[in-house]
């Protein structure tokens, strides 16, 4: 996760930064799922799924914003 944060900060392009943030979100979902299993709290899986959905929709929204900003609107 630390390497993803470093790439998000130092990424040479905006798309590298977006990919790093997406990777950080995916690893957070995995961490929540493993934590739910280890603690024995299956309700944490609901949080992990909700976070995954928010992460996915957020990345799509940011990519669409950059597409429109670059003049590639359909």
TrEMBL record:
Keywords: Cell membrane, Membrane, Transmembrane, Transmembrane helix, Transport
Cellular localization per UniProt: Cell membrane
Membrane topology, as annotated: Multi-pass membrane protein
Similarity comment: family membership: Belongs to the CPA3 antiporters (TC 2.A.63) subunit F family.
Keyword rRNA processing assigned: no
Name of protein: Multiple resistance and pH regulation protein F
A Pfam family assignment: MrpF_PhaF
Keyword DNA-binding: no
Cellular component terms (Gene Ontology): plasma membrane
InterPro entries: MrpF/PhaF-like
